Amino acid sequence: MLRDRTDSRAALWRTAAGQRGYFTAAQAMDAGYSYQAQRYHAQHGNWLVVDRALYRFREFSDLPGEGDEQLVRWWLWSKGRAVVSHATALAVHDLGTANPSRIHLTVPRGFRQKSDAVILHRAELPESDVEDRMGYRVTTPLRALVECAADDDDQDVLDGAVAEALEQGIVTRRKLLHAAQLMGSRAELGVERALGAVS
After folding, report:
1. Across all residues in the chain, what is the average pLDDT?
2. Which of 20, 25, 167, 176 is 20 to 30 A from residue 35's alpha carbon, by CA?
3. For 145, left (φ over 0), alpha (ψ -120 to 50), or beta?
4. How far apart are alpha carbons 38 and 54 in whole angstroms?
5. Where are the beta strands (DSSP E) in the chain?
6. Is 101 helix (H, G, I), strand (E, B) or coil?
7. CA-closest candidate to residue 95, choices 182, 176, 25, 178
8. Which among 104, 93, 97 is positioned nearest to 157, based on CA atoms?
9. How far apart are CA 105 and CA 7, in angstroms?
10. Considering only CA atoms, which of 2, 27, 136 is closest in space to residue 78?
11. Helix, strand, coil fractions of the chain, as percent rounded to 5
12. Beta strands 47-51 and 54-57: pairing type?
């Protein structure tokens, strides 16, 4: 029996290690933990309860963070369907001064979950607009810039982010304008203003 528990912990640890220590109740079940065993580990402090059916190994909370651990939590909350986007994606890419008070996530149109801690945007994202990170997914810098322009976010924040993206060679003016045109007139106007501020 001890061997079974050791195997279950090792299996769950492997899953959680790629998700900054976070794991879902379903992942724990797949690793061999019954709901009764999950309740036991949560009640005895072996696992930190993050949200309903969402846990984190205590050991990971003691490690120095990289600043984006909470994004893994929201990716798991969405059952892997959400992509970090808009101003939150700009912060992930370290472009400009974006520091949104709530997490921006793009989810499929039929997504039903809600939380006051997040702002949900509904869209079907092409794979070319998404990057994988350790434990979550995020829109590319180009997509994040035009999303913010389309949402008519703070123009000063957008101006700074566009300037940094151009300076670092992450995007070109041409690609940025083209992506904005595809996103719509509001995105196009915001990007044109930001490019004008760079000139």
Report:
1. 91
2. 20
3. alpha
4. 10
5. 22-24, 47-51, 54-57, 83-84, 103-107, 118-122, 130-133, 136-139
6. coil
7. 176
8. 97
9. 35
10. 136
11. 50, 15, 30
12. antiparallel
Q: For residues 27 and 102, what is the distance between their CA atoms, to the nearest angstrom?
A: 27
Give the N- to C-terminal CA distance of the chain in Å, as an integer. Answer: 69
- CA–chain centroid gap for 110, Å, is 19
Contact status, residue 56 vs residue 50, Cβ threshold 8 Å: yes
Residue 80 vs residues 4, 27, 105, 177: alpha-carbon distances, Å? 28, 12, 11, 30
Tell me the per-residue pLDDT of 124-136, one tens digit each, with 9 for 90 and over.
999 999 999 989 9
Residue 131 CA to chain centroid, in angstroms? 10
For residue 104, the cross-strand partners are: 119
**Closest listed residue to residue 91, CA positions, set 101, 77, 80, 78:** 101
Whole-angstrom distance, CA of residue 32 vs CA of residue 179: 46
The answer to whether 85 and 121 are in contact (CB under 8 A) is: yes
- Give per-residue pLDDT as tens, 21-62: 999 999 999 999 999 999 999 999 999 999 889 999 988 877
Torsion of CA 68, 71, 13, 46, to 10 degrees: 90
What per-residue string of b and e applies to 77-92 under the rule 16 or more CB within 10 Å gives b? Answer: bbeeebbbbbbbbbbb
